[in-house]
Write a structure and sequence with these properties.
Layout: H1 2-13, E1 27-35, E2 41-50, H2 54-57, E3 59-68, E4 71-81, E5 85-93
Antiparallel strand pairs: 1-2, 2-3, 3-4, 4-5
Amino acid sequence: MSGLEDFRHKLARDPDFPPSMGEESTTLGYSEDVLSPSGTLFGRYQIEYDLERRESHNLIVIRSTGLVGNSRTTLVGYLEDSDGLRWLAVKGQAD
């Protein structure tokens, strides 16, 4: 869930997030490292987000894939972007 919450937090705090996309592209992504308290790499998550339905339905679809060692988990979140930000649904996805 940390990748999904990272996206929601950035969207709430940064008026320039997510970055502008060309008219032909509606999907972008980024990745973040997750560090242990001692500063060593613990894992990583990759975010892909789709803005195709943002203007028409106030909906952003975010896919977060978390990687820790040999484990991989993907969650897909549906974020409503009107009158604040709230999760409409979060679903696991088989990898």
